[in-house]
Specification:
Distance between the termini: 63 Å
Shape: elongated
Radius of gyration: 25 Å
Largest sheet: 4 strands, mixed
Oligomer: single chain
Mean pLDDT: 90
Structural class: alpha/beta
Length: 169
């Protein structure tokens, strides 16, 4: 009760209260209408004017990865320039404790940057010389700096992994 319930109903877009019965919405209406349905064992929750939006479920989540690595992940979503992104990378590398890696993850694209291009390996190496860096690009490829290659034991003679390709300069 005492909320702003988004009903998704064209006739009544918001209501004050709702009743749940057997795990389903039973009634939606005013505080008075819904409180009249209250029984002896009814749990009443005062929403304090807050909004309830039913039915929003994010089916793609990474709560474990996020919880374990949030402080070491870097997101470039919405960053306007590659110069800003590289500055952020340098700052993140400085505060990432060894032997942890900096992970650039998320939904960024080179087309959001004013420069309209990907970072070069030289730029990534300059921003984070001694900290391993993994830059995920559109979930289809990743860039690893020199410290990351050393941490993996990769050399110029390392063969391609099964089903993958190491692109070399």
């Amino acid at each position: 009760m005492n909320g702003r319930i988004a009903t998704q109903d064209e006739q009544r877009s918001f209501a004050q209260a709702f009743a749940i019965q057997n795990g389903r919405f039973g009634s939606v209406g005013s505080n008075e209408q819904i409180m009249a349905l209250r029984g002896a064992n009814t749990e009443v929750i005062d929403l304090g004017g807050r909004t309830v939006i039913p039915g929003l479920n994010d089916s793609h989540m990474h709560p474990i990865r996020g919880g374990l690595n949030y402080n070491m992940e870097l997101r470039w979503d919405g960053v306007p320039s590659l110069a800003d992104a590289l500055r952020m990378l340098k700052e993140q590398a400085q505060r990432t404790p060894p032997p942890q890696w900096v992970r650039v993850v998320g939904g960024w694209t080179e087309f959001q940057f004013a420069e309209r291009r990907m970072p070069t390996l030289a730029e990534i190496n300059a921003a984070a010389q001694d900290t391993p860096v993994f830059v995920l690009h559109l979930y289809d490829r990743a860039l690893l700096n020199g410290a990351a290659l050393r941490a993996c034991g990769y050399t110029k003679d390392t063969p391609d992994p099964p089903g993958g390709e190491i692109q070399r300069d």
